[in-house]
Amino acid sequence: MEPVAIVGIDCRFPGAPDTGAYWDLLMRGADGVREVPRQRWDAKEFHSEAGEEGHTNTTQGGFIADPDAFDDEFFTISPREAAAMDPQQRLLLQSAWRAVEDAGIAPRNLAGTPTGVFVGVMGNEWAQLHLTDYPNVTAQVGSGNGYCMTANRISYHLDLKGPSLAVDTACSSSLVAAHLAVNALLSEECDQALVGGVNLALTPALSIFYTQAGLSAPDGRCKPFSAEANGIGRGEGVGVIVLRRLRDAIADGQRVYAVIRGIAVNQDGRSNGLTAPNRWAQQEVLAAAYRRAGVEPSDVVFTEAHGTGTGLGDMMEVKALGHHHADRTGKPMALGSVKGNLGHTEGAAGIAGLIKVALSLHHRVVPASRSAAKENKQLKLRDHGLRLLKAPLRLPAGPTVAGLSSFGMGGTNAHAVLESAPGHAARPEAANGAAPGGIGAAVFTLTAPNADALRRNLLTQADAAAARRVPLGPLARAGNRVKAGHRHRFAITATDTAELVAGLRESAADPELLARLSGRPTARPRTAFLFTGQGSQYPRMTAALYEQSPLYRHFLDEADAALLPHTGRSVRDLILAGDVAVHSTRWTQPALFAVGYALGRTLMALGVRPGLLLGHSVGEFAAAVLARALPLDGAAQLIAARGALMQELPAGGGMLSVRAAGEDLQGWIEREPLVGLAAVNGPTSTVLSGDLETLDRIGAEIEAKGFTTRRLQVSHAFHSPLMRPVLDRFAKIAAEVGGGVPEIPLYSTVRGRVLDDEAMDASYWVEHISATVQFGDAAAALLAEGPTHLVEIGPQPVLSGMVRRLDRPAEGAGPAHVLPVHGPESTGRALAEALAELYRGGVEPDWDAVYAPEERVAHPLPPYTFSKEHRYWARNPVRGPGTAAVAAAVRTDPALVPRSEPETAPASVLPLDRTGGPADPVADAVLGAVRLVGGWSDVSPHDRLYEDLGFDSVMIMELKNRLEARLAGIGSLTVQDLLPRLSSVGDLVAFLREFGASVPGPVSFGDTGENRALMEEERTA
């Protein structure tokens, strides 16, 4: 059989709220059994030491804490639906999400994939309580129960397209589910599979059954293979694992806990009783699993037994194992059962054992057995080649094989053979010839549905990072890859783990800081790159970034290599040496080109894809390369020649900045043949260029007219008539290079607009030398396209100020200005902060490029911390014998869920009165109907019905019926009419007004059984 990897785990068992606590409980040999919580049933009312009919002989069991807590808002499930759902579904939803995260996958990235869901479940006591309460059966109660929904709900909420099924083979259910998942992976029905098991003991029914069948331990504890073994103790729990074909897990660099080498299932058939174990069938399923795994029994170092702690069950299991292992008397196989710690978790028993074995192989130690000190001598374990562990067993280096059994009460048996993860799993990912990663700082990101959830999970991550020494790169990369997909985006930069921990805690404690470091993009981002021109250079520009960022270093080296044949000297070395020659035109232009190209390509390698490009004068050369209008080598040849030719021009030229419009200066320009209009950077920002003596003379005249002037520190009169002597020589070089049409919209400062299927060919670059730089017009045309981010590409910010003067939107309405380099002091931290800002705005970076190849390793992060604020349970617990249960499910805290005001309003917003409520009766009727359908105590006009309130087709039908009962004039309204207008509550109200809806009189709330729990809330709303 092809091996299958376990790549993700999450679980929750008695005394162990998460996977780490579960392993700790096992290693301590602890006991999760306690008295039956009154939330389940009154254990004393049902207890009888003699085990009388209708009673149980124990008041103890393995119960998990807070089974009623559910983060319904996270999954966009309405309170009413959450209250109707089997809590086993709720537990599985949360555990599945956390297991996928543990596998190093952002759960939302699985949407639409052929991922399978296989769930083992043998009890549905919630359905017994609620589906028999006929007056309160609703559509939500129907869909909230049933075995199929334990798997189907996971597939629905994660949008998974692979097989989805629930399995009930009693106690072996979840290991049989794993068997089906493995086969589905090997047949390529799915590429990954979630395997779960769940059990909640909500009624004493099975406890009574076990008692009456003589199977119940009076102390509520399983004692596998112990001399004190006297029956079953019930247990609860949930566990989910993520499976992948081993070759796929290794290819994706995932952490592998353990490998399933072989797995088999069979049946007792007609044996000595429907519920009795069968030794022969058990030894046959063991043989089948060994055969499928390709191992000999002697290869198996330890086995996690079914181990119920019943006399007959333990004996049969020992004999079945002994059939294969009896010749190992010199080195007996270790044997244990997690039921000694938790009780018998029934439908979750197989997954509890599977997780225990996987963790044992992962940590390379097998926990001791709680039963070892009082071993049942009658079982003759040694004669069967078996032993109980009195102390943890340290596993030797190298491959280790383990077994796992799970036997169903009805005779369906399963056995799995597992092996430790191969040594070559989860190695750093190879660069595969791509540019090396690393920018000099890490960007830690985290997303959540709302600010409270963000704050809660920031603290979870901070606590985990502070608890142990963790390298920053793999930690931050794991956050980038896994903690993604929610509306609120948090990003913070750091250079070491201690700084990150401090930043996370500070952000969680300071709402204003949290708001600054978070974004909530509502539309797809559109990014523009603005490339600076001559005048922004300085010695050692971007030198610190070059030293700290291998990624930037790679692209600056690439530009330098392209320039070297044409410059005769390394531009890179000149920059890094701090040579003042960088201010000489011959070197300024190629140096700025190299920096602009390297910064632009670095950002593109980081996943920042520009949708718009603009370059100021020589900045257009780097922009043209990124737009694929020029090849790198061709652009290098052009810019080197341009700078050298201009350097050869005689001195005596200069440039003058004037605070005036270009047309105001036209008279002076027309009568001065040695002066030209070099640049128009804005409505009142103009640059004249030409002969210095002439500039001085007309400058004085201009100032006399009330305009402000400033001499620019340049070596030559760029973009002026004085450039004409170099044009012919440059034209010959430009003809060799040529040029094409930009593949990304490029806003030309020669044309003052976007180039529309126009080639940046030789004639363009020749004209570029002396033409006016029409930056103001080009930038205005770019801004009209609505970019969300303007990223200035250059050694220091120059263009951002110009653009801000061009574009003066309302507060917060304009594009964000992003600066990867701030100036001489900029390091990799500035680039990281620019990437963080872009991410908050909706950009999806290529995170691997942020990190060096050796940092691209799987690193576990704490899974999502769900809110426990909302709790749902039966209205009353189960009562004593002969008393009917009250089964309606309700929220157990005082009020139903209030809706918070969203941060941004939709286009259609209702007028509100002084109390914040709607100011008209139609809106009042709609809000009331929405509240009743979902069970909310408060609904805002801004709430979106699908995304915020969790509406589905069933709820839409009910909403339509309630609207028809409350509003006149909508009798002909159909669901098809409603569907396009259900984006928000406010949109729905506006549509109904247009449709002619009116309120005929006082709103009727009705008094059906499903509404009674909500009527008082609705009347006072």
TrEMBL record:
One family from Pfam that matches here is: PP-binding
Q: Which residues form the Ketosynthase family 3 (KS3) domain?
A: 1-420
The record's keywords, sorted A to Z, are: Antibiotic biosynthesis, Phosphopantetheine, Phosphoprotein, Transferase
GO terms assigned for molecular function: fatty acid synthase activity; phosphopantetheine binding
Oxidoreductase as a keyword of this entry, yes or no, is no
Question: What residues does the Carrier domain cover?
Answer: 917-996
Single Gene Ontology BP annotation: macrolide biosynthetic process
- PROSITE patterns the record matches: CARRIER (PS50075), KS3_2 (PS52004)
Q: Which InterPro entries match?
A: Ac_transferase_dom_sf, ACP-like_sf, Acyl_transferase_dom, Acyl_Trfase/lysoPLipase, Ketoacyl_synth_C, Ketoacyl_synth_N, Malonyl_transacylase_ACP-bd, PKS_assoc
Top-level taxonomic group: Bacteria
Protein name (Swiss-Prot/TrEMBL): Polyketide synthase
- The source organism is Streptomyces niveus (Streptomyces spheroides)
